Amino acid sequence: MIEIKDLSCQLGDRYVLDHVSCSFGDGLVTAVIGPNGSGKTTLLRHLTRTYPSQGRIKIDGVPLETLSSRQLARNLAVLEQDAMLLGADFTASDLVVMGRYAQRGFGRAYEADDFGFAEAALARVGLEGFGSRRVSDMSGGERQRVMLARVLCQDAAALVLDEPMNHLDPAHALAVAALLRQEKKTTAVVIHDLNLASLVADRILALEDGRVAGYGTPAELLTAPFVKKLFGVDAAVTLFDGRPHLAFRLPG
């Protein structure tokens, strides 16, 4: 479990996060939603120690600041929003196998089973046989899935993912959503598509202006009144396969 207590982040005279308290439960996929600028990415970056924490963060009861870099990598595998900009000059296999750092340690040679992990991770994101292809020759969606494969190859206890379905067509976005549910790991995932959030999430954390605006199951949060309040848009909500499905009206 990831526990966050009274977390704040101030940039200039503005609080990007304002005394946020929340948790990401064991084995649950928690979708983090909210308008642009609500603090979603900032919240996840505090989990990776990108920003100094003003508050308390614990992973399985252990204070975040006490973990070594390698211990943190064994606990959290991270996909950042701009991750696909990295590693374009590598082959897919060489980039994905870097996720094994947490298991091998920095500077130690990879072994055959590490590359086996990498090939298996590529297959899980639908890129079987892509290992020898250069990332620079791939489409944006393929690059995004390579970076997700690197996260899976890390074999960490929890996943922290910032818009992992970005750049993906509907079929591949749904496949990634299904994969995240199959992993059964503690997962914090930023998602803008509310229908994808409904499909993938066990719980939803909503942020607004750096504060927690709501927390609950998809059925509890993805209601027409709450979506109107949070995003200022009109939505019709129906049930599809037992989960909320939202249809939107154009403004004006």
UniProtKB/TrEMBL annotation:
It comes from Jonquetella anthropi DSM 22815. GO terms for molecular function: ATP binding; ATP hydrolysis activity. Residues 2-234 form the ABC transporter domain. Keywords: ATP-binding, Nucleotide-binding. InterPro entries: AAA+_ATPase (IPR003593), ABC_transporter-like_ATP-bd (IPR003439), ABC_transporter-like_CS (IPR017871), P-loop_NTPase (IPR027417). PANTHER family: ABC TRANSPORTER ATP-BINDING PROTEIN, HEMIN IMPORT ATP-BINDING PROTEIN HMUV. The keyword Membrane does not apply. This is ABC-type cobalamin/Fe3+-siderophore transport system, ATPase component. It holds the Pfam family ABC_tran. The keyword Nucleotide-binding applies.
